[in-house]
Amino acid sequence: METGLLYSGGKDSSLAAAWLDDHCEVTLLCCTFGVTDDHEHAMATATELGYPVRRVDLDADVARSAVEQIVGDGYPRNGIQQVHEHALERCAALDFAAVADGTRRDDRVPTVDRPLAQSLEDRYDVAHLAPLAGVGRRAIDAFVADLFTVETGPSATVDKGDYETELRALIRDEHGCEAVKNCFPEHTQSRVTGWR
Questions:
Q1: Mean pLDDT of the chain
Q2: pLDDT at 109 exceeding the cut of 80
Q3: Among 99, 103, 96, which residue's Cα sits nearest to residue 119?
Q4: Secondary structure class of 196 (helix, strand, coil)
Q5: pTM of whole model > 0.85?
Q6: Angle at 172 between CA 74 and CA 89, to 5 degrees
């Protein structure tokens, strides 16, 4: 089954690709608003891992709406969820039999609940695959340690192609550095750099 997997270059989406690879023809989809070139880091990781990779351009209006949601809320959850749902929609509309993501059981954001998955499947005639949906962080970290080399660091410093990077840049440009600090809690990010 030809499957397009939303790909950031991080641990979750890399593990999802490895697991899907046994049963699907996987193409990694690096989504971008074109605000930064961070999606190129994800594309480089995809190439390093040996997967076909494709850039998917997202709608700038969705980014602006997500930024206002994040700044208004004072936290990123709802804005990132909005962007993830938009990215799933864009990818579901492409020429794949299935669309997948690396959301895991204990994710706070983004999430794909059953109604959203069914809606994507019905409207776009694709299968939605979530290979990590029943897997928690501890198990994912163990599998990743066996499969990949990984770079980690503070979320503001790890070059990766996820939504947060572009949303941070937009908030910084439109609302200032202090707004970024107020809206995004500091946390550790990771980027896969290759196979073990």
A1: 93
A2: yes
A3: 99
A4: coil
A5: yes
A6: 70
- Rounded CA-CA distance 189/159 in Å is 9
Q: At what angle do helices 39-49 and 11-20 cross, to 10 degrees?
A: 40
Domains of the chain with CATH codes: 2-195 (3.40.50.620)
130-144 residue pLDDT tens: 999 999 999 999 999
CA distances in angstroms from 116 to 2, 7, 10, 59, listed in the order given = 21, 19, 23, 19
pLDDT over 80 at 61, yes or no = yes
In one-letter notation, the amino acid at residue 11 is: K
Torsion of CA 158, 162, 164, 167, to 10 degrees: 120
Q: How far is CA 26 from the centre of its chain?
A: 15
